[in-house]
Amino acid sequence: MESLNITHGSVSMNETLVQHSQETTFETAIALPMFMFAGGAIGNIIAIIVLSVSRQERKSSAFYTLVCGLAVTDLLGTCLASPLTIANYYMDQTVLTVQHVCEFHSFLLLFFGLTGLSIICAMAAERYMAICCPYTYQRWGVDRRFAQKFLFFIYISNIFFCCLPMMGMSKSELQPSRTWCFIHWGTEELAAEYSVLYGSVSLLLILGTILLNLAVCGALLLMRQRTVQRPVTRASVRDRWRALSSAAETQMMAVLVMTSAVVLACSAPLVVRVFANCFILKNDPIADLAAIRIAAVNPILDPWIYILLRRSLFRKLLKLSRQGSSTRRTSSPTSQRSLFYPVIVRDSHVITQLMCNANIMTQLPATVKFTSYDTESPRQT
Question: Rounded to whole angstroms, what are the CA distances from 278 to 113, 141, 192, 271, 321?
Fold first, then answer.
């Protein structure tokens, strides 16, 4: 009898240890989606608040409208997709076994992933046109209303494209980890065609964003090099142009380079897995899960790159830059008065640079103020 009691006690102890181990595993598994949900929601809410208190001239720009669209898109994607994943963990991974819920979750991942890439690519294209094609930018009337219409087009086209699996072109299925749903990775002709099409569109958006960002960075560097190296009749004009443009150029280049890095790092793994599952025909559920988790980091990083870093760090850099040159400005007030006119009229190259960079000047913080000039000054000189 005593041995039986000892055996029964050991069995109870083993059950307790197993239960404790399961609870620990559950807490560890649920921590990651909850952390990502909190990080994405809080970051994008802060970004939207920061945008809402921006100056009126920033709110009227196309770039501001696209940034708002990106923040709202990331916030909606986080608030719609993450709760389903968290609820699936709490309900013993049974929520996503319902076919309609699985299809909806797959649609959310497809739509918000592709929409985020589309908006980022649109932001890169807007910067490219503003810097490299200013006349086309003005002729097309790229402003807040234009950006709103383009955002509407992005949403409608991506909704239609991501609904194709529910229309029969492909199908959504629960992945082996039972924590997320996505399009079928199989070799069926129709499903494979949609997977390749989705991967190709995503790849084109990634490459387009990178190429546009590199083109803008190259144009800014080229214009800066030409402005510095070209002889100018008065050195004060060149010095003031460098002081005014350096902060804006640094800001633009840093944001664009970081955008390329984030897009490539977060979106490329999932695109690679889409093509790998279609052509290599070797299932790797762990790699698929890692790719979707890396893609989910994108909404967490976007608001900090596009909003907070852009408004805080580079404003301080501009302030330090202006403080460093305050002595020279006070010593020559007349040259400051003629910063843009009439001195620069004598050098057509500087005029070209200023016209091409007119959109950069509108992006400078509110602390930069330009002294108005007297229209009679040319006659007096």
Answer: 19, 42, 6, 11, 53
